[in-house]
Amino acid sequence: MTTVATPTRPAAAGSHHPGAWSRFRWGVADGLTVTKRNLIAYTRTPALLVFAVIQPVMFVLLFRYVFGGAIKVNVPGGYVSYLTPGIIGQSAAFASFGTAVGLAREIQKGVVDRYRSMPMARSAVLVGRLTADTLRMILTVLVLLGVSAAVGFRFHNGFWPAVGMVGLAVAFGVTVCAVSAYIGFAIRDEESVASFGLIWLFPLTFVSAAFVPVSSMPGWLQAFANNQPVTIVIDEMRSLALGGPLALHAWESAVWLVGILAVFLPLAVRAYRRV
User: Fold this and answer.
1) Global pTM value
2) How far separated are the first and last CA of the chain, in Å rounded?
3) Domain coordinates in residue numbering, the chain
4) CB–CB of 236/246 below 8 Å?
5) 93-115: string of b/e by CB count within 10 Å (b at 16+)?
6) Following CA atoms 137, 139, 142, 148 in sequence, which dihedral angle do they give, to the nearest 10 degrees?
7) Which helix (H) or strand (E) holds 75?
8) How far is 247 from 253, CA to CA, in rounded Å?
9) C-alpha dist (Å) from residue 157 to 52, 226, 238, 240
10) Residue 119 carries which DSSP code?
11) What is the pLDDT of residues 126-165, one digit of tens each?
12) DSSP 8-state assignment for residue 71
């Protein structure tokens, strides 16, 4: 385990109970310390980072050159332009798998128990993990954009909508990370989490508009695909990248993301307290 020193906290003058601002400051500092520890783990085991990037790159190349010729879409730039926002959204969601496995591993190895014995904010474990995984997710998205550009993808809607697409992808990934954090804390066993982790993500990502138009699916499946969060978020990302109506899917995406966070962040905190 990588050890990162935690500074000793001075007591507030004349009081053993620091104010809200002091607690917030120390909470942020502790969260950044745990983030640093998690990032150091990537430098010492670079295979974790390499494998996290290779899989989505393989998806881009396989769908672009193996399936792309058989899938007809009516968007500027053809199928690669349709595919790229979908792959980025899927990869942001799949990146959350590492959150669940990492937390379960730390519980099994006693790292979380050690954190609890230290004078640090209890929120730092979750905040540090989510921050480190968000940085890893941003790197993955940028690599995917580079590979997609190499095989023909281009933004057609300007610079700021392109930035908005990346921001929405990261926000979506962070939201799914909150769900994965709850799974990691609730199941606690690394092997069980690894087995369960992608079972719920595969139907959501593949039964969506990520890779094919929803209109090509059977009618009974379209009702689900059209109204689930992956399709709504990816349709908004596609509109930001290629041009198209933004308002409808923008507020629908916001409602889904805020709603999921409002449910699963408290659940993750509650599950952490029971560890």
Assistant:
1) 0.86
2) 19
3) 25-274
4) yes
5) bbbbbbbbbbbbbbbeeebbeeb
6) -80
7) none
8) 10
9) 29, 24, 10, 7
10) S
11) 889 999 989 989 999 999 999 999 999 999 998 999 999 9
12) -
